[in-house]
Every structure is written in structure tokens, then in C-alpha cells.
Design brief:
Blueprint (H helix, E strand, L loop, with lengths): L1 H23 L2 E6 L2 E2 L3 E3 L6 E2 L1 H12 L3 E6 L5 H6 L5 E2 L7 H6 E3 L4 E3 L1 E6 L15 E5 L3 H8 L5 E5 L2 H10 L4 E5 H10 L4 E3 L7 E3 L2 E3 L3 H16 L2 H10 L4
Parallel strand pairs: 1-5, 1-6, 10-11, 10-12
Antiparallel strand pairs: 2-3, 3-4, 6-15, 7-15, 8-14, 9-12, 9-13
Helix pairs in contact: 2-8, 2-9
The structure holds arginine (ARG).
Arginine (ARG) binds next to strand 2.
Length: 249
């Protein structure tokens, strides 16, 4: 009898320990199209994922007591991937739009951006969206840049690419007159490939990025928002922001 009790106790202890160990490090699976510097990109040498979003979601995961696992994925299909259960959240410089919000829940906004028109350095034809009339415009497929280009009347052709770097390359090559992309990404490209492209004009939309969570996962959304608020209050958010977008960046 005593023996049984001891074995039973040991078993209970082992079980609870096992559960505790597991519960201490649950994994947050994060989907992101890691081709979007300065938000998410792979270090050229190490292949390590870096950027504002990556650091933010790592800090959020840490605050939630979770281990963060970044899964690189194509932008097109990133929301279906979340809905299929491939990831727990998406962080991918994703603009909160009404249409997307029908499919997923978004966290509180964590970044403000806008669309800009990028042209080749020597281009003098384009200053604002209506100047894209009759021109070929390059975009990343199903981005808000794509949607903005579709709204411009009389665009000759929208060339839609899987990644933003490909769309920008099209402008550099002269195959497209312009690209429509998020301002911070344009700035990073201009810094890293100086002398190739410039901004045709100021940004012409205002957009807010959110972290996407499956609609059924309300508990996780609450936790993400709580962590985000904590990081904003305790200076961690500002530190990450300063690192990627501070003066001189
Ligand atoms: N902000 C834009 C959108 O939501 C572009 C985001 C693209 N993000 C990326 N990681 N490729 O449509």
C-alpha cells in the first residue's frame, strides 16, 4: 500500500513537473513574408531573421512567456495560412484593412505607414498618383500598394510580383515606370541601393499595421494586445522603434 502511494506520488510529481516545463515555454508560431526590410528580412550573411517586426514580436512573445518561432512564408496566401493553422499570428507589415478584418482579427495598431510612388532617379514624369495614367506600375501582389494602384484611373498595366524587391527591380530596370509601396520600405531600399530610385512625391495614404490573429483565438489576441501595451508603456517599443527608425535612419 505504502509502495503504491510512493509510486503514485512520484508519478503525480513527474506529471506536474512535465506539465510545468511544457507550460513554461509554449511556442508562438509567427508567419511573415521576410522580404520586407526594415520590417522583416533575412541577414545577408547569417540568414537570421531581423527587422522591426521581428524584434517587436520577439519582445511580445517574451512578455507573454512564449518562445517565438518565425516561419518565412510568401505574402500571397499568408492569411489562408493563418486560417489553416500554420501559424498562431502574422506580423508582416500588414495594413489593417476592412476586407482583411473580415477574415482575421487585428491587434491594436503598432505602426503608421503610407503608400508612396517610387520612380527611377532620372524620371521626371511622375509626381502624384494621377500621373500613373497610361504607365506600367509594379507592385507586390495583394498589398495595399496593389490596391492603391488599382484605384488610379487609366493605368496601362499593373505588374504584380510575389515580393516587393522584385517590383522595385522592375523600376530600376525600366520595365515599369513606377512602383507603389510602403514608405519605410522605399526609404530602406534607397539607402541600400543609392542612386537608383527616388520618391515621386509624398505618401498618399495613411495606414496602420496590425498583428493578425485567427478570429476564433480571442484569448491570444487579448494577450498580444496586453503585451503590446506593456511594451509601449515600459519603453521597449520605443527602443525598438528608435533602433530601426530613429534619427539618422
Ligand atoms: N503594408 C502593405 C499591406 O499590408 C504591404 C505589406 C507587405 N508585407 C510584407 N512583409 N511583404 O498590404
Amino acid at each position: 500500500m505504502k509502495k503504491f502511494l510512493v509510486v503514485g506520488l512520484m508519478l503525480a510529481l513527474a506529471l506536474s513537473l512535465g506539465v510545468a516545463v511544457q507550460a513554461a515555454r509554449p511556442v508562438l508560431r509567427v508567419g511573415s513574408d521576410v522580404t520586407y526590410a526594415p520590417f522583416e528580412f533575412a541577414d545577408a550573411k547569417t540568414g537570421e531573421f531581423m527587422g522591426f517586426d521581428i524584434e517587436l514580436i520577439r519582445a511580445i512573445g517574451k512578455d507573454m512567456g512564449m518562445e517565438v518561432e518565425i516561419k518565412n512564408t510568401a505574402w500571397d496566401g499568408i492569411i489562408p495560412g493563418l486560417l489553416n493553422g500554420n501559424y498562431d499570428v502574422l506580423i508582416s507589415a500588414m495594413t489593417i484593412t476592412d476586407e482583411r478584418a473580415q477574415a482575421v482579427n487585428f491587434s491594436d495598431p503598432y505602426f503608421t505607414a503610407g503608400q508612396v510612388i517610387v520612380v527611377r532617379n532620372d524620371n521626371k514624369n511622375v509626381k502624384e498618383p494621377k500621373d500613373l495614367k497610361g504607365k506600367v506600375v509594379a507592385v507586390q501582389i495583394n498589398t495595399t500598394g496593389d490596391y492603391a494602384a488599382q484605384k488610379v484611373e487609366g493605368v496601362a498595366k499593373i505588374s504584380r510580383f510575389n515580393t516587393t524587391p522584385e517590383a522595385l527591380q522592375e523600376v530600376v530596370n525600366g520595365a515599369a515606370e513606377a512602383a507603389v509601396i510602403d514608405l519605410p520600405v522605399a526609404k530602406t531600399f534607397m539607402k541600400e541601393s543609392p542612386g537608383k530610385v527616388r520618391l515621386a512625391g509624398p505618401s498618399f495614404t495613411v495606414e496602420y499595421y496590425g498583428i493578425a490573429v485567427k478570429k476564433s483565438n480571442e484569448d491570444l489576441l487579448k494577450k498580444v494586445n496586453k503585451a503590446l501595451a506593456t511594451l509601449k508603456a515600459n519603453g521597449t517599443y520605443d527602443k525598438i522603434y528608435e533602433k530601426w527608425f530613429g534619427a539618422g535612419k
